[in-house]
Design goal:
By secondary structure, the chain is α+β, with helices and mostly antiparallel strands. The protein is built from 11 helices and 17 strands. The chain has helices spanning 45-50, 74-84, 86-89, 116-128, 176-191, 226-232, 260-281, 288-302, 309-320, 327-343, 372-384; strands at residues 4-9, 15-22, 29-37, 52-57, 63-68, 96-103, 108-115, 135-138, 150-154, 159-164, 167-171, 197-202, 217-222, 350-357, 362-369, 387-397, 400-409. The strands form 4 sheets. A 5-stranded mixed sheet has the order 3-2-1-4-8. It has a 5-stranded mixed sheet with strand order 11-10-9-12-13, with no helix packed on it. A 4-stranded antiparallel sheet has the order 14-15-17-16. Helix 7 runs antiparallel to helix 8 (288-302), helix 7 packs across helix 9 (309-320) and helix 7 (260-281) runs parallel beside helix 10. The longest helix has 22 residues, at 260-281. The chain is globular and about 75 Å long. The two termini are 28 Å apart. It is found in: Cell inner membrane.
């Protein structure tokens, strides 16, 4: 699993905390973390460019609703929900983003509402710092969900609370007991049932949060690093606020339709180059014709008139430059790939998920093998070729070791 950069806007909305989470160990951990003013976000640009980015907004900025879906058509639902919630939201619905979750078995849809101008301003500030998030969620939504208890996190600048799948909010410590009592009473009046238990996660083992509410079962769950713990609870099922006009616009996704042919050419270059060079390493020469035919078939999807492999590879290399690369970057890719595969024994190591970053002249790929010593031996052999080598996310599962290896030219 790739590393993930978490950025959480603090309640003062002028500063943030960040952490780079790695999954190299069994429990996700921050390899780096810190705090910055929003005006200094540019310091995170390099990490944001290389990793998936998750932005956590203050829960006070995100309101939660659950409504009966009048239709299962997504486009129609996006139009209908704002007017279903118009009286509850109070503000002009045209100025609010209504982000929708999936429709559950009972026909209910989770809705998160956030002010458009606020979200637009946050995303613009991030963009000016060369940071584009993949996910934007309420920080309180990351709290774990339990059927028999609420979750509470005591953090440095706020208290986060999660009542149910789509009911989460934040408050200051001195208001928590009153708000919790009010919510419990409201839940009882509406449903005639109420949770009487809460799990409190806190760096303070002796925390007195909610001690004054009679009849409430409290389970204290000490956490060493509250922000790290919160980010470790993130999962892809959370409601992503990047919807509708705010849908993610990562650089590699922009104008994909407009650049369809160059994009296909780049993909073909990587796939063709990988297959072609692997074919040269295979001891069984009788398979060579089969691989060349696969290469030619891939090339002809982009260049139908090409009839031989060598001419096709030249055309693919030339087309690669239309994506921002040049002949040198294409040659750099082929050189790194050639050296990498020459140093790796295909009988003991499986190579997959090839990725080339032309701006850094860096080639990355996933490898799998039966033991860790084979991984380190491959790393040493790659380094012996004179390349700069980095191995990340080494882990073992079911008797198979996997890792991500990045190679580049030594500076």
């Amino acid at each position: 699993m790739k590393d993930r950069l978490f950025i959480r806007l603090k309640s003062d909305e002028e500063s943030l905390e960040w952490g780079l989470m790695t999954h190299e160990e069994s429990v996700p951990k921050f390899s780096e973390q810190g705090e910055l003013l929003l005006d200094d976000m540019i310091a995170l640009a390099e990490q944001a460019a290389q990793n998936e980015v998750v932005l956590l907004l203050p829960a006070s900025r995100v309101r939660c609703f659950n409504v009966k879906a009048p239709t299962r058509n997504r486009k129609q639902l996006e139009k209908a929900v704002p007017y279903i919630l118009e009286e509850q939201v109070l503000e002009n619905v045209e100025q609010q983003l209504f982000a929708l979750g999936s429709i559950n078995a009972s026909g209910m849809v989770a809705v998160n509402v956030v002010d458009k101008s606020y979200l637009e301003d946050v995303l613009e500030r991030l963009k000016n710092a060369s940071i584009e998030p993949d996910y934007v969620v309420s920080d309180a939504s990351c709290l774990p969900l339990f059927d028999d208890a609420w979750s509470v996190l005591e953090h440095d600048d706020s208290i986060l609370v999660r009542q149910s799948a789509n009911e989460y909010w934040s408050t200051e410590a001195d208001m928590l007991s009153d708000l919790m009592s009010w919510n419990l009473q409201t839940q009882f009046e509406e449903n005639q049932t109420v949770s009487q238990a809460v799990r409190i996660y806190s760096p303070d083992e002796n925390t007195n949060l909610l001690a004054g509410i009679a009849g409430l079962a409290i389970q204290k769950m000490p956490v060493e690093n509250s922000f790290e713990w919160l980010c470790s609870q993130f999962n892809y099922s959370l409601l992503n606020l990047l919807q509708q006009e705010f849908s993610s616009q990562k650089k590699h996704q922009v104008n994909l339709g407009q650049w369809k042919m160059p994009a296909i050419a780049a993909i073909a270059l990587i796939a063709v180059g990988f297959i072609y060079l692997i074919s040269q390493m295979i001891v069984l020469n009788q398979q060579k014709n089969q691989y060349e035919q696969q290469i030619l078939t891939s090339i002809q999807q982009v260049f139908p008139n090409v009839s031989d492999v060598n001419t096709g590879l030249i055309q693919v290399s030339n087309r690669f430059s239309t994506l921002g690369g040049d002949a040198a970057s294409a040659n750099s890719f082929m050189l790194l790939l050639d050296k990498s595969l020459a140093a790796i024994d295909p009988q003991t190591i499986k190579v997959s998920q090839l990725e080339y970053l032309s701006s850094m002249a860096q080639l990355s790929f996933d490898v799998e093998t039966s033991d860790y010593s084979t991984l380190t031996a491959a790393q040493n052999k790659l380094e012996a070729t004179g390349m700069q080598v980095e191995m990340r996310n080494a882990s073992e599962s079911g008797g198979t070791w996997s890792a991500r290896i990045s190679v580049g030219v030594k500076q």
